[in-house]
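Support request, please re-run this one:
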Amino acid sequence: MPSFQTEDIPHGFAFDEGGKIIHPRYVRMIPPPPTDGPTYGWKKFYLSFASDFGDVTVRVATFKNGAWTTQTLNVTAGGGRVGFTLDAGTQKVSVGRMKTSAGDRNEDTPVSWLLESQA
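Re-run finished. Output below.
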């Protein structure tokens, strides 16, 4: 049976246009449940994002095997949700709004994340 978790990403920029942290209070941590374990039975995790009333750039970092990997996602109000499958062994995910330019002031557009797990 699938499981779903969702939350809004808070208003305010966590990262500047170069990916440097502005303030960590705007970052959300998502610790996905363990995958492929006989006790848990989860097989796949999907992380997706959606926005309305404007476009949002989201910086996503995943932690696996002692290392962080980052990517930038453009979440548009006029398009479908965007996301990806988490690799098995991913232990934590960090998400936050990112400026598209130094003058970007679009920090109040609603944007949320959804973590889907499938057994």
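Strands lie at 3-8, 28-30, 44-51, 56-64, 67-75, 82-86, 92-98, 111-118. The mean pLDDT is 91.
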